[in-house]
Amino acid sequence: MTTSELPQRTAVQAAPLTVLLPDDVTAPARARHEVRSFLLAAGLCEAQLDDVLLATSELVTNAFEHGERPQRLELAYTGERLTLRVHDAGSLLPELRAPSPAEARSRGLVLVQALSEDWGFERCPGGKFVWAVFRLPRG
User: Which of 13, 15, 27, 121 is within CB 3.0–4.6 Å of 21 for a Cys-Cys bond?
Assistant: First the structure.
């Protein structure tokens, strides 16, 4: 079963942080910077952020390569649970594929799936969100 055959699920409706992303190759770095700053200000420590920052890069990069450019990133953090959503204007739905060992690319969603507690997509007016959820207790 490909990802596009999975039922659409909603992770969260609204986020307290919304970041408009630039229409160029700096978008993943900008997204990582904003996520990192937000989570450090929320009281998380640097050591807790690696998986989230890698997943952020992958979701934003996938929106460039397979969507119609990432438009915005939304972040919600409840003190235990972080939801990260990336919106793009594309209609193509994400597909989780097992990459061949010979392929240098095509591991983005596999990484997101491995790093997050849950992930998915949802269609919305003007495109779609691809999201990932992480368990990040303050400690």
Answer: 27
Is residue 48 within 8 A of residue 136, CB to CB? The reply is: yes
Residue 24 three-state SS: coil
List the pLDDT tens digit at each of the 139 positions of the chain: 455 555 555 544 445 899 999 989 999 999 999 999 999 998 899 999 999 999 999 999 989 887 788 899 999 998 799 999 999 999 888 877 766 665 555 568 889 999 999 999 999 999 999 999 999 987 6
C-alpha distance from residue 93 to each of 37, 44, 79, 99 (Å): 30, 32, 30, 18
Give the Cα separation of 130 and 61 in Å (integer): 12
How far apart are alpha carbons 122 and 37 in whole angstroms? 26
CA dist 100 and 113 (Å) reads: 17
First-to-last alpha carbon distance for the chain, in angstroms, is: 38
Radius of gyration, CA atoms only, the chain: 14
Using CA atoms, how far apart are residues 27 and 61, in angstroms rounded to an integer?
8
